[in-house]
Amino acid sequence: MSKTLHLERNLQTLGGLVTCKRCQALSKRSGLQCRAPAISGKTKCRFHGGKSTGPKTEAGRQRCAQARTTHGQETTSIRIERSLGSARLAVLESVGFALGMFAGVRTPGRRPDQIAQAYPELQAIFQKLLIDRAKHGS
Q1: The pLDDT value given to residue 28
Q2: pTM value?
Q3: Averages of pLDDT over each 10 residues, the chain, 138 residues
Q4: What backbone torsions phi and psi does residue 34 show, to the nearest 5 degrees?
Q5: Measured between alpha carbons, how far is 21 from 19 in angstroms, rounded to an integer?
Q6: In this structure, is residue 102 part of a structural domain?
Q7: Which of 12, 33, 9, 32 lies closest to 21, judged by CA?
Q8: What local confidence, expressed as pLDDT, does residue 72 receive?
Q9: Measured distance CA(86)–CA(101) in Å, rounded
Q10: Which residues contact 134 (CB under 8 A, 6 or more apart)?
Q11: Range of 128's domain?
């Protein structure tokens, strides 16, 4: 069963004296339509980006394309830095459990994508330790 979305196009303001376009943005939390009037000639209100015109110059467009931001704050370099940090923690956690330093449950979820770049020397020593343990049976 498909759910059809009905958005109101017009809005009555000033006690029904003025009719204007209604903002077409939807709330992520409640799914309801924004109640503010849209900016003249646009489909969104001032709160949902109706005033935005985007980058004007070619240099501005290039900067925007290189940043590849999500919601204006998270860039590619920040994502890579966070992924490498969680990979480092995953390596340290696996070494701690293998050496018996940690007890209990491991951190849930999949292992980070950049785990190969996190502490390669430590991973080599850890692999050597595991091979030695397997040979000696301890």
Answers
A1: 81
A2: 0.47
A3: 63 78 87 87 86 86 77 75 88 85 87 81 83 78
A4: -60, 145
A5: 7
A6: yes
A7: 9
A8: 64
A9: 19
A10: none
A11: 81-136
Taking CB atoms within 8 Å and a gap of at least 24, the contacts of 13-19 are 13/37
Structural domain contains residue 59: no
- Angle, in degrees to the nearest 10, between helices 76-98 and 120-136: 20
Q: Single out the residue of 5, 40, 34, 6 nearest to residue 20, CA to CA.
A: 40
Q: Contact 102/96 with Cβ under 8 angstroms?
A: yes
**Per-residue pLDDT at 57:** 92
Answer whether residue 92 is part of any domain.
yes
pLDDT at 1: 43
Say if 124 falls within a structural domain: yes
Q: Give the pLDDT of residue 133.
A: 81
Q: Work out how many domains the chain is built from and give that number.
A: 1
